[in-house]
Specification:
Layout (H helix, E strand, L loop, with lengths): L1 H32 L9 E16 L16 E2 L4 E13 L2 E15 L6 E15 L7 E15 L6 E14 L1 E2 L4 E14 L11 E17 L1
Antiparallel strand pairs: 1-2, 1-3, 1-10, 3-4, 4-5, 5-6, 6-7, 7-9, 8-9, 9-10
Length: 223
């Protein structure tokens, strides 16, 4: 009788503890699966657009013309034209995203000297990084290096273009709309440098830069 009572008591204890253990396990799994609201993780992709102001100079050429904003020795047209960027990559940790980015700026206009229709552009392909000083905030600074091409398309044999190197500096803020989507206002400066081997006029190295103010959408699909 005593043995029977002990066996029934042990069985009842096992039955009582089993649901509780299972429930605790489920709760633990739930806590592991749900990421903190501020976490940046996994693959990301960003598309952004804005207005870009361009200016340029040759190292051996004296500046001419005027700008309504101070640009040092740079020449400029006082205009803001379309500028777009597409980037994607991965998240190293909540403080750092790394990836690749394509940038493009374009200006379609009439050339004052020839009267021809001209499309000026600056495009680049870069390796970029975004650093978040405070992991729980959306503020970041951005940098990148890569290849670039600047040119003017006259829709004829007189088209000109120069390939060179570029770097990018910028800053922005990720505003969390959901766990996977961020609204990303930002400002960036793209600087292109190239040297023409057929520089018969001895103009020197060509520098071009585009200051862009824009906004983008960043999506992180998952881990």
């Amino acid at each position: 009788m005593r043995n029977t009572t002990k066996a029934l008591t042990a069985l009842a204890a096992v039955l009582l503890l089993t649901p509780s253990s299972g429930l605790m396990a489920q709760r633990r799994r739930g806590l592991v699966d749900v990421s903190p609201a501020s976490e940046r993780h996994g693959f990301w992709i960003n598309f952004s657009g804005g207005a870009g102001a361009e200016n340029w100079r040759f190292t051996n050429e004296a500046p001419s013309g005027s700008c309504s904003r101070p640009v040092g020795a740079y020449q400029c047209e006082d205009n803001w034209k379309p500028s777009i960027a597409l980037g994607l990559g991965g998240t190293v940790n909540p403080n750092l995203r790394l990836g690749g980015e394509l940038n493009g700026w374009i200006w379609s206009h009439q050339d004052n000297a020839s009267g021809a229709h001209v499309t000026s552009y600056l495009a680049s392909a870069m390796l970029v990084g975004q650093f978040y000083p405070v992991s729980r905030l959306g503020a970041f600074v951005k940098g990148g290096v890569g290849l670039s091409q600047s040119g003017e398309d006259f829709y004829g044999p007189d088209d000109i273009s120069e390939t060179g190197f570029a770097y990018l500096l910028g800053a922005g803020y990720e505003i969390k709309l959901s766990r996977s989507i961020f609204l990303t206002p930002m400002v960036s400066l793209l600087h292109h440098v190239s040297t023409n081997p057929d520089d018969i006029d001895n103009l020197g190295t060509f520098h071009e830069r585009v200051l862009t103010i824009g906004v983008g959408i960043t999506i992180q699909p998952g881990r």
